[in-house]
Specification:
Layout: E1 24-27, H1 37-40, H2 43-55, E2 63-66, H3 76-90
Parallel strand pairs: 1-2
Helix pairs in contact: 2-3
Protein backbone atom coordinates (compact mmCIF):
# COMPACT_ATOMS: atom_id res chain seq x y z
CA UNK A 1 0.00 0.00 0.00
CA UNK A 2 2.86 2.35 -0.81
CA UNK A 3 2.88 4.88 -3.63
CA UNK A 4 5.05 3.82 -6.55
CA UNK A 5 5.17 0.18 -5.44
CA UNK A 6 3.32 -2.91 -6.54
CA UNK A 7 4.85 -5.72 -4.47
CA UNK A 8 4.11 -9.37 -5.07
CA UNK A 9 4.08 -12.34 -2.79
CA UNK A 10 7.13 -14.58 -2.92
CA UNK A 11 5.04 -17.54 -4.09
CA UNK A 12 3.47 -15.55 -6.96
CA UNK A 13 4.77 -15.35 -10.50
CA UNK A 14 6.56 -12.14 -11.48
CA UNK A 15 4.10 -9.33 -12.23
CA UNK A 16 5.21 -9.13 -15.87
CA UNK A 17 4.79 -12.88 -16.54
CA UNK A 18 2.47 -12.73 -19.55
CA UNK A 19 1.92 -16.50 -19.55
CA UNK A 20 -0.53 -15.79 -16.71
CA UNK A 21 -3.76 -14.08 -17.67
CA UNK A 22 -4.84 -13.04 -14.17
CA UNK A 23 -3.64 -9.75 -12.75
CA UNK A 24 -4.87 -9.22 -9.20
CA UNK A 25 -4.22 -6.09 -7.16
CA UNK A 26 -4.57 -6.64 -3.42
CA UNK A 27 -4.89 -3.29 -1.68
CA UNK A 28 -5.63 -3.89 1.97
CA UNK A 29 -3.99 -4.20 5.36
CA UNK A 30 -3.10 -7.53 6.91
CA UNK A 31 -5.60 -6.77 9.66
CA UNK A 32 -8.71 -4.96 8.35
CA UNK A 33 -9.50 -1.77 10.25
CA UNK A 34 -12.81 -0.23 9.22
CA UNK A 35 -12.05 3.16 10.76
CA UNK A 36 -9.01 3.53 8.45
CA UNK A 37 -10.76 2.40 5.27
CA UNK A 38 -11.80 5.88 4.04
CA UNK A 39 -8.26 7.18 4.25
CA UNK A 40 -6.88 4.05 2.56
CA UNK A 41 -9.44 3.72 -0.23
CA UNK A 42 -8.73 7.13 -1.72
CA UNK A 43 -6.80 8.59 -4.65
CA UNK A 44 -3.71 6.58 -3.70
CA UNK A 45 -5.57 3.44 -4.74
CA UNK A 46 -5.91 4.83 -8.26
CA UNK A 47 -2.17 5.58 -8.36
CA UNK A 48 -1.25 2.08 -7.14
CA UNK A 49 -3.54 0.59 -9.80
CA UNK A 50 -1.63 2.52 -12.48
CA UNK A 51 1.73 1.49 -10.98
CA UNK A 52 0.68 -2.16 -11.06
CA UNK A 53 -0.35 -1.73 -14.70
CA UNK A 54 3.21 -0.76 -15.60
CA UNK A 55 4.81 -3.45 -13.44
CA UNK A 56 2.59 -6.18 -14.87
CA UNK A 57 3.83 -5.58 -18.41
CA UNK A 58 1.22 -2.95 -19.31
CA UNK A 59 -1.74 -5.13 -18.36
CA UNK A 60 -4.67 -3.81 -16.34
CA UNK A 61 -5.78 -5.75 -13.30
CA UNK A 62 -8.65 -8.19 -13.78
CA UNK A 63 -9.47 -7.97 -10.08
CA UNK A 64 -9.07 -5.32 -7.41
CA UNK A 65 -9.32 -6.47 -3.80
CA UNK A 66 -9.90 -3.95 -1.00
CA UNK A 67 -11.40 -4.00 2.48
CA UNK A 68 -14.63 -2.08 3.07
CA UNK A 69 -15.12 -1.01 -0.54
CA UNK A 70 -18.08 1.25 0.32
CA UNK A 71 -15.82 3.32 2.58
CA UNK A 72 -13.92 5.46 0.13
CA UNK A 73 -13.04 9.11 -0.38
CA UNK A 74 -11.82 11.12 -3.33
CA UNK A 75 -13.02 8.59 -5.92
CA UNK A 76 -11.07 5.75 -4.36
CA UNK A 77 -12.44 2.28 -4.90
CA UNK A 78 -15.16 3.30 -7.32
CA UNK A 79 -12.91 5.45 -9.49
CA UNK A 80 -10.26 2.72 -9.63
CA UNK A 81 -12.91 0.16 -10.62
CA UNK A 82 -14.28 2.50 -13.31
CA UNK A 83 -10.73 2.94 -14.64
CA UNK A 84 -10.03 -0.79 -14.77
CA UNK A 85 -13.36 -1.68 -16.36
CA UNK A 86 -13.03 1.10 -18.92
CA UNK A 87 -9.51 0.12 -19.90
CA UNK A 88 -10.41 -3.57 -20.12
CA UNK A 89 -13.68 -3.06 -22.03
CA UNK A 90 -12.88 -0.32 -24.51
CA UNK A 91 -9.43 1.13 -23.81
CA UNK A 92 -10.83 4.26 -22.13
CA UNK A 93 -10.00 5.48 -18.63
CA UNK A 94 -13.61 5.35 -17.46
CA UNK A 95 -16.17 2.60 -18.03
CA UNK A 96 -18.85 5.23 -18.73
CA UNK A 97 -16.96 6.24 -21.89
CA UNK A 98 -17.54 2.74 -23.27
CA UNK A 99 -21.27 3.31 -23.80
CA UNK A 100 -22.02 3.61 -27.50
CA UNK A 101 -23.22 7.14 -28.15
CA UNK A 102 -22.30 8.21 -24.62
CA UNK A 103 -19.50 10.48 -23.49
CA UNK A 104 -16.61 10.77 -25.93
CA UNK A 105 -16.80 7.18 -27.18
CA UNK A 106 -17.19 6.75 -30.92
CA UNK A 107 -17.10 2.97 -30.98
Amino acid sequence: MKAGECPRRAESSPMNDKTKSLVLVNYFRTIPLKFLACSQNNGRLLNVTKTCYRESGNRWANFLAVDFYKRSEGGGTFQATDLLNGELLCGRNDVHACVIGGGNCTR
